[in-house]
Amino acid sequence: MTPAMEPQVNVTGKLWIGGDWRDAASGKTFEVMNPATETPLMPVAEAGEADIDLAVTAAQKAYTEGDWPKMTAAGRGQLLWKIGDLLLANAGELARIETMNNGKPIFESRQVDVPAAAACFHYYAGWATKIHGETIPVPGNFLNYTLREPLGVCGAIIPWNFPLLMAAWKLAPALACGNTVVLKPAEQTPLTALKLAEILEQAGLPAGVVNIVPGFGPTAGAALVRHPGVAKIAFTGSTAVGKEIMREAAGTLKKVSLELGGKSPNIVFADADLDAAVRGAINGIFYGKGEVCAAGSRLFVESSIHDEFLGKLTERASKLQVGDPLHPKTRVGALVSSGQMKKVLDYIEAGNREGAKLVTGGGRASVGDGKGYFVKPTIFDQATNTMKIAREEIFGPVLAAIEFRDIEDAISQANQTVYGLAAAVWTRDIKKAHKAARALQAGTVWINTYNMLDTASPFGGYKMSGFGRELGQHGLEMYTQTKSVWVDLND
Ligand code: NAP
Ligand code: MG
């Protein structure tokens, strides 16, 4: 597609602070790209330390003064519900912007990202009126009760793989609990967050309750993490940056929740419904171009079905439609950036070098005029758990298939990783399935399915995949603190 033909995006490329659209204090902007065409979409203001300070100050003011602290829980619930409705009303445009900015297939943005973001606001709308303390039967003539209070200003730092959905996961529970937020989107994908700002405004969210500040991690992100006016940082992204954030947050003892990377095992036993398992394995690694924290990037296949399974899997993978992300039939879009593509291609090289057997894919895919960061769905067979491609998070459409002997071998290899975000097992044996679910060290275990998520069900990591649970009732714990109040009833 030539730049002239490209449909443009209707987004305000500024910082949204205290309800106003502002240029960066430095006047700097950065170019946001379409990874499928390698062309610029639009410039966006680049927040620096001064802008972060302004945004935190606006969020502090909105937390303590004006309409937000006066609003009833029911009022907050109604507002969140309205935001969910407006997301759905604008679903077509949001999906198109997401796809043009991130490179993910429009099928995904339209069917998953936007409706799931709306569902998150609708879900937490219901919780706003159900967050309350308890009375505790203490000894003596005392009344003891607890208050569940918001934390104050929360900083949210999110990645580029699910830009709108990650914004929703952070904002909806934080707002349901009465906090205010400063959100820094990923540098590659700030556009749907800026569109969301328009929706928040339209829904009637008081000025400064949410502030959206596109910018870079080491500058804008780090300034948010250091800021003494921020009570908590909710972060989703790489394990390396997660560690850095934890170290930095120690300076002001901020609360931190981290949703980090993964190298999730997808285990197929010989007694599984193999066709369903093939579909699950494909979805597990090629959904979202494999740029998914819970991607099933290590496929463990029981020896007795190995050849049959790999045959079916390879055939299906080679038929996946890689192409223009805006085309409704496309199933694998463009990787988010040239940097991410290079990283993925380097891993493919490492797989070849280490002696894994490349059975399909293995390089860039040519789409249209040859522009765009497309990588073919790639499968390595005969990988071992110690290879680089089986140890490190690739974050792309690259699968490492590894054989196993029996359940003990499968679980032991599956758990041999620093990560623990998700895992899956495919079997018709109910005992084996639940035994595996208990033994796998992961925050989510899927049985005979993959990538199932719902706003009502908690999501988060074991081990170096982070801590804290997002979504569901558990998500509320990340955005409230408990106060114990004692009353002397003695005469
Ligand atoms: P990343 O660097 O961890 O980025 C995540 C977010 O953190 C972005 O908003 C980023 O800003 C910000 N950030 C970076 N350095 C920071 C700092 N020192 N202080 C505060 N915030 C900071 O991830 P990435 O570079 O985009 O991707 C690298 C790898 O991370 C991927 O290849 C993948 O392995 C992993 N990843 C995991 C997830 C997940 O869902 N768990 C999501 C995305 C990526 P900038 O955008 O400006 O860097
Ligand atoms: Mg980065």
Polypeptide structure, described:
This protein has 16 helices and 20 strands. The chain is of the alpha/beta class and 491 residues long. The chain folds into two domains: 3-260 and 465-483, Aldehyde Dehydrogenase, Chain A, domain 1 (3-Layer(aba) Sandwich); 265-454, Aldehyde Dehydrogenase, Chain A, domain 2 (3-Layer(aba) Sandwich). It is globular, with a radius of gyration of 23 Å. The termini are far apart. Bound molecules: NADP nicotinamide-adenine-dinucleotide phosphate and magnesium ion (MG). Residues 157-161, 184, 186-187, 216-218, 221-222, 225, 236-238, 241, 244-245, 259-261, 293, 343, 393, 395 line the site of NADP nicotinamide-adenine-dinucleotide phosphate.
List the helices and strands and how they pair.
Blueprint: E1 15-17, E2 20-22, E3 29-34, E4 39-45, H1 49-64, H2 67-70, H3 73-89, H4 91-102, H5 106-127, E5 135-136, E6 142-150, E7 153-157, H6 163-176, E8 180-184, H7 191-203, E9 210-212, H8 217-226, E10 232-236, H9 239-249, E11 255-259, E12 265-268, H10 274-286, E13 298-302, H11 306-318, H12 338-354, E14 357-360, E15 378-381, H13 388-391, E16 398-404, H14 407-415, E17 422-426, H15 430-439, E18 444-447, E19 466-467, H16 474-477, E20 480-488
Parallel strand pairs: 7-8, 7-10, 8-9, 10-11, 12-13, 12-17, 13-16, 15-16, 17-18
Antiparallel strand pairs: 1-2, 3-4, 5-6, 6-20, 11-19, 14-15
Helix pairs in contact: 1-8, 3-5, 3-7, 4-5, 5-6, 10-11
The chain binds NADP nicotinamide-adenine-dinucleotide phosphate (NAP) and magnesium ion (MG).
NADP nicotinamide-adenine-dinucleotide phosphate (NAP) binds at residues 157-161, 184, 186-187, 216-218, 221-222, 225, 236-238, 241, 244-245, 259-261, 293, 343, 393, 395.
